[in-house]
Design a protein that fits this description.
By secondary structure, the chain is α+β, with helices and mostly antiparallel strands. The chain has helices spanning about 45-55, 55-65, 75-80, 130-140, 155-165, 190-200; strands at about 25-30, 35-40, 85-95, 95-105, 110-120, 145-155, 170-175, 180-185.
Length: about 210
């Protein structure tokens, strides 16, 4: 488990063009952990390489649907260089290490985006996947995305649960063991209620607040 080091994000002082600072937040987790959630940056390349290398073969297979132990240089460049509009990725960090990555991608002008995320093995089942889904949906709505599409293996029950219990009206189909899910990300009453319940455990008050 990555050590919880004091958060010093010096690289953020030189943010890439279009970097959305409003998507940065600190989040309380269980077991006394605090997470930092923020958009990905090009300087995350070495962190992403380490993060992927430390995933178990099972987690890699659940994400990529194949044995893929090492990211290519081209993949690292693509994953860490985004335009923050049609392609947006968020990372969750503990100290200086990545513990989760989520992203959405859409074709320019489209209102449907594909969403995907992966969480480090030791941080799974702690609500980080749902956190990434909530934050990606918020950012996507602000950028004109109306619908998310996700593909996951039928055996990936944890990921299916994240999508089906988030509060969105999900429809799904299955073909050759791959489940395709689609759901509008509008702020319905059901989703607002589910999000409000989750947010009560995520907020970290400013230092010095009562």
């Amino acid at each position: 488990m990555p050590a919880q080091l004091p958060f010093v994000d010096a690289a953020a002082l030189v943010s890439p063009a279009g970097y959305p600072h409003d998507l940065e937040r600190d989040v309380a987790g269980d077991a006394g952990l605090h997470y930092r959630l923020r958009p990905i940056r090009p300087d995350d390349a070495p962190r992403l390489v380490v993060f992927h290398r430390q995933l178990s073969p099972h987690s890699v297979y659940m994400r990529f649907f194949t044995f893929h132990p090492t990211l290519s240089d081209a993949e690292v460049a693509r994953f860490t260089n985004v335009d923050y509009v049609d392609r947006l990725a968020l990372v969750v960090t503990v100290g200086d290490g990545l513990v989760a990555v989520g992203r959405f991608d859409r074709a320019p002008g489209e209102t449907e985006a594909e969403v995907a995320f992966v969480v480090a093995d030791e941080f799974q089942h702690h609500g980080i996947g749902t956190l990434l889904l909530d934050e990606l949906a918020r950012a996507a709505r602000e950028r004109g995305v109306e619908t998310f599409r996700a593909e996951t293996l039928a055996e990936n029950s944890a990921m299916l649960d994240v999508f089906r219990h988030a509060g969105f009206p999900v429809t799904s189909s299955i073909e050759y063991g791959t489940v395709t899910l689609r759901f509008p990300i509008a702020l319905t009453d059901d989703y607002r209620a589910a999000l409000a319940a989750r947010e009560t455990t995520r907020w970290i008050p400013p230092e010095g607040a009562a």
